[in-house]
Task: inverse folding
């Protein structure tokens, strides 16, 4: 098993180091190779996704990714900005299915901004289509308007588009995930989020998801407009089981869902292609404002490593060991600053990683 390690920028190097520490404590047989990505790669290679880094990612069974981005690169042309690295990896590796679980640990119910009774026991899986929609649609650019309210004015445009096969494959992923979760005790429901009342693209999305859903009679399907979904996530979040949606809506809703759990520092994610090769990363960003201070929460990255073991490396027992260890350190009352509350023990990035390792080897 070969793992490509791409720490990236900001706190990426710190949190990935803790995940590596945990992986090594498992005493499994795999190799790890590190390469620069994002702003770090721009500094060393003049591009956020150098050919050597891309080739390493292609050759690996899985990629453990930190985070990319820094305000100092905002003046670069778009093609050279750090964020283009993650978009490039998704495109070149065909990483079309993004899994973002939003689980509220019982020990963190008071860390959420919502009332404990709303989020206690929360377990949502958001599945976001990752390689289509307005983020990748063509044409896009800037031009002089020839119509509209201000003809002759400069304007910018992006294209929202989805093909039927793109929608079908992500819908199958969602229904299959709901079936797996149902076997473990979940409701067995898929909520497809769209904006079919306004956007032709998402009327098409709704029609195709409905068609695919007919092949899964054991799984309930409902549809919800994205604005209502955003409201329901904070009104009654436990009504959701599996949520499937497009690239842009999924980007927004998954970040909203992360705060239900108390901190985005607790949320892992997996981005998979049709071969189950995956890129695993925390849902948060590079946080350059706290980089180097040793206060970042590494648990989302450590939990992403657990997802990597389960989905791409076929080591479910090892994944469960990591998840159990994370639960144990939270029970011990250890907290990084983002999830700290009076009565718990505040620790730094390394201390949290060490605690997970200690809980793992017991």
Result:
């Amino acid at each position: 098993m070969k793992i490509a390690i791409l720490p990236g920028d900001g706190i990426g190097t710190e949190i990935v180091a803790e995940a590596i520490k945990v992986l090594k404590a498992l005493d499994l047989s795999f190799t790890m190779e590190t390469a620069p990505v994002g702003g770090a790669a721009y500094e060393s290679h003049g591009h956020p996704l150098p050919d050597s880094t891309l080739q390493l990612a292609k050759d690996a069974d899985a990629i453990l990714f930190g985070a990319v981005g820094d305000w100092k690169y905002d003046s670069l042309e778009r093609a050279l900005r750090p964020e283009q690295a993650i978009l490039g990896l998704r495109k070149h590796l065909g990483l079309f299915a993004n899994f973002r679980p939003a689980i509220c640990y019982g020990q963190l119910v008071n860390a959420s901004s919502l009332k404990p009774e709303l989020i206690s026991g929360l377990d949502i899986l958001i599945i976001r289509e990752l390689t289509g929609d307005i983020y990748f649609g063509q044409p896009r650019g800037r031009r002089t308007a020839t119509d509209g309210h201000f003809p002759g004015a400069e304007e910018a445009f992006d294209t929202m588009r989805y093909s039927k096969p793109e929608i079908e494959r992500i819908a199958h992923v969602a229904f299959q995930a709901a079936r797996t979760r149902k076997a473990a005790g979940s409701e067995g429901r898929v909520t497809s989020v769209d904006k079919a009342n306004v956007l032709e693209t998402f009327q098409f999305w709704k029609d195709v998801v409905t068609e695919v859903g007919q092949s899964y009679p054991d799984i309930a399907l409902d549809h919800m407009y994205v604005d209502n979904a955003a409201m329901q996530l904070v009104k009654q979040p436990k009504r959701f089981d599996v949520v499937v949606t497009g690239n842009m809506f999924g980007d927004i809703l998954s970040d909203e869902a992360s705060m239900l759990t108390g901190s985005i520092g607790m949320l892992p994610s997996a981005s998979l292609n049709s071969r189950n090769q995956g890129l695993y990363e925390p849902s948060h960003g590079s946080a350059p404002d706290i980089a180097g201070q040793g206060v970042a929460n590494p648990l989302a990255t450590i939990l992403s490593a657990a997802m990597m073991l389960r989905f791409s490396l076929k080591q479910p027992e090892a994944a469960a060991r990591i998840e159990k260890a994370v639960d144990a350190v939270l029970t011990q009352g250890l907290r990084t600053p983002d999830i700290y509350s009076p009565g718990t023990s505040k620790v730094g990035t390394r201390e949290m990683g060490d605690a997970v390792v200690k809980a793992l080897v017991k």
About this structure: The radius of gyration is 20 Å. The chain has a mean pLDDT of 94. The chain has twelve helices and 14 strands. The longest strand covers residues 2-8.
